[in-house]
Amino acid sequence: IEHHFADKALQGVKLMITAGPTREAIDPVRYISNHSSGKMGYAIAEQAAKMGAQVTLISGPVSLTCPQGVDRINATSATEMHEAVMGRIGQQDIFIGCAAVADYRPEIVADAKIKKNNDQMVVTMVKNPDILADVAALSDAPFTVGFAAETHDVEKYARGKLEKKKLNMIAANDVSDPSIGFNSDQNALTLYWTNGSLLLPATSKSNLASQLLMQVNQAYRKQ
Ligand code: CTP
Ligand code: CA
């Protein structure tokens, strides 16, 4: 009975998650992007659905199949992902920003392939909208969880983002450790919220996803 209860802890909860990278076009054949396999976000989406949540997965370009029972919406650029999220966020209870969103996009997208006529090439970039911050800033914001991929001073930067973006929780991972994160099937996370933190040691991404969701659910019920 207890097992069944834990499995369906998110029954009826509407949960939206972003996953994967975004691609910012330079011309019709080139783009700028981030490292992201999408595995962590997809594992969270899959696990949330198993726990009974109604899951909307806003996905950047990845080579993963959509988890069973999950409603996937594809987006390529950060601008597209922002539109896909903001257009559907009204009905959501929990939002998890797991995507590796490109911070900048080329100011001008060439409409024809750029030829290598010069020894140097300069691409002027402009800032993309911050999807996570915009969700958290809504007057009726859902319970909002961010991710922070850091190479150093993990806690300092993660807590900085928690506060600046007015998040309920942030999950930080140290991407300087090659054995975890990115294309790996394993990951470790430290969760931070205003009054506490919790280390989730290295394990499979699906195991980590279920631990993360149990913490998110607990904090979401408490708020
Ligand atoms: N994020 C987002 N939209 C952006 C940039 C980031 O939704 N345009 C989200 C990510 O999905 C993640 C969180 O913000 O949940 C933190 O992303 P991260 O790149 O670690 O932080 P930034 O705020 O972009 O700051 P910086 O890259 O300078 O560390
Ligand atoms: Ca960033």
UniProtKB/TrEMBL annotation:
Known cofactor(s): FMN; Mg(2+)
Cofactor note as given? Binds 1 FMN per subunit.
Catalysed reaction equations from the record = (R)-4'-phosphopantothenate + L-cysteine + CTP = N-[(R)-4-phosphopantothenoyl]-L-cysteine + CMP + diphosphate + H(+); N-[(R)-4-phosphopantothenoyl]-L-cysteine + H(+) = (R)-4'-phosphopantetheine + CO2
Q: Which domain of life is it from?
A: Bacteria
- Which Gene Ontology molecular-function terms are recorded? phosphopantothenate--cysteine ligase activity; phosphopantothenoylcysteine decarboxylase activity
EC number(s)?
A: 4.1.1.36, 6.3.2.5
Does the keyword field hold Magnesium? yes
Question: According to its UniProt entry, what is the function of this protein?
Answer: Catalyzes two sequential steps in the biosynthesis of coenzyme A. In the first step cysteine is conjugated to 4'-phosphopantothenate to form 4-phosphopantothenoylcysteine. In the second step the latter compound is decarboxylated to form 4'-phosphopantotheine. Catalyzes two steps in the biosynthesis of coenzyme A. In the first step cysteine is conjugated to 4'-phosphopantothenate to form 4-phosphopantothenoylcysteine, in the latter compound is decarboxylated to form 4'-phosphopantotheine.
Q: What is this protein called?
A: Coenzyme A biosynthesis bifunctional protein CoaBC
Q: Which residues of the full protein are shown?
A: 176 to 398 of 398
